[in-house]
Design a protein that fits this description.
This protein is mainly alpha-helical and 199 residues long. Helices cover 75% and strands 0% of the residues. It has helices spanning 3-75, 85-102, 109-125, 135-155, 166-171, 173-186.
């Protein structure tokens, strides 16, 4: 056998061997990339599942908040006539407590703000009239306003304008806040009532 043939065979074998090694290295690299992509996909899927669970949990808590708010009005009746003022104030106070707590769980910012306004007006109505409306009138109007808002929310509609009477209260909010703050100062209190916009 000639040396040339031996060298050719050896070179061919080395080239084949190196080609196979390069091929294995490439396959290994592709497998690593595929594993990394699979891990990233699994991580994304896990994160999405956690987000979905969190969103579903928040939405369920929001529904519970709406149910609790509407139940508060049913469980604490406010009558315009023939209800002693102490009973009216007690009903308004109980409703206000529920609204003040449950509003935090309402995801819709506009609805949360409107519930905070209702809570605010109910709260100050227990200490006297609000824009000429008694606590019974504020409570009665708030019930109608709340039912309208929650109905629109449940149907997925935009929140409507306020009912007559309640719209007047909302338009007078700045003056009502000033008067309430002055009343607190006149009582010797230094507390600043935070603006409704923080809710």
């Amino acid at each position: 056998m000639e040396w040339g043939t031996i060298v050719t065979v050896l070179l061919g074998g080395l080239i084949g061997l190196s080609g196979e090694t390069v091929g294995r290295m490439g396959a290994r690299r592709q497998a690593q990339i595929a594993r990394q992509e699979a891990l990233e996909d699994a991580s994304k899927a896990r994160s999405q599942a956690i987000e979905d669970d969190s969103r579903r949990g928040k939405e369920a808590r929001e529904r519970t908040a709406v149910e609790n708010i509407l139940s508060a009005y049913l469980e604490n009746p406010i009558r315009l006539v023939d209800q002693p003022s102490e009973e009216t104030v007690l009903s308004v106070t109980k409703i206000c407590l529920v609204l003040g707590f449950e509003q935090s769980f309402i995801l819709n910012a506009e609805l949360r703000q409107r519930v905070a306004e209702i809570c605010y007006f109910l709260d100050i109505s227990t200490d006297g009239d609000v824009c000429g409306y008694s606590a019974a009138e504020v409570g009665f109007l708030s019930r109608s306003e709340m039912r309208m808002l929650m109905g629109a929310w449940a149907r997925g509609e935009d929140l409507p304008n306020s009912i007559e009477g309640w719209g007047e209260l909302r338009r007078g909010l700045a003056e009502i806040e000033r008067n309430w703050q002055q009343k607190l100062r006149d009582s010797g209190l230094r507390v600043e009532v935070p603006p409704l916009s923080i809710y």
